[in-house]
Amino acid sequence: MAERHARIVIRRLTKTFREDGREVAAVQDVDVDVRDQEFVALVGPSGCGKSTILNMIGGLVTPSAGTVTVDGVPVDGRVPANVGYVFQKDTVFPWRTVARNIALGLEYRGVTGAEQARRVRDAVALAGLTGFEDAFPATLSGGMRQRVALMRTLVVEPEILLMDEPFGALDTHTKLTLHAELLALWEARHQTVVFVTHDLSEAITLADRVIVMTRRPGHVKLVHEVKLPRPRDVIALRETDAYALEYGRLWHVLGEEFAERA
User: Fold this and answer.
1) pLDDT in tens, 142-161
2) Residue 224, CA distances (Å) to 39, 120, 150, 187, 245 in order
3) Superfamily for domain range 6-82+160-261
């Protein structure tokens, strides 16, 4: 099988912030390619610039140096049209029902009437939220609200999905449930995904490749191919020797960064 082309190309990416009157480098000289339909996870110590990289890919933060291109087009402070973003907080609007929250992106794109209704209905069913269409976020669990936020992004059918620790605030059971749902959605649609997480188990469970970042200023320490077959059972997977081997290899590299900080 021919190798898929790179949709996201990052070269010598650097971002420096001004903090208390001094320059602080968040990331420095990062080189990364993300291939078409690939699921890539970024892991690393807190403050290593994972979210900053994601924000530069999404056009929300301007690099201090280096380049980001999406489908060959430089990202110059503008959100690429084919990119969807799922944030760490669920970001649902409390005054909108489940259905109206999911419909928001379609409204922005001028999708109305029967087509909007169909796509929202399909998204609600896909997320397991049937029966909650008219519910308001205050009545939902954290996991359900995050499903709403995810479907609000997916309903506009982005080809590239950026996810910034979307399950970080959830309990383990809810997180595993959403891992299974996300993998099922990805298997069905095969978006190109860049997923930021501090949870190494989450990265191994979801990703094709795991990129390990150093402590600040973050740069790429390791690019690791996850050799676990798909489709993946998120529960059974963690009981396998293959999973333990993947975890051990990555933890050794990531643990070096924690040890240095200590």
Assistant:
1) 888 888 988 888 888 889 99
2) 12, 37, 26, 21, 12
3) P-loop containing nucleotide triphosphate hydrolases (3.40.50.300)
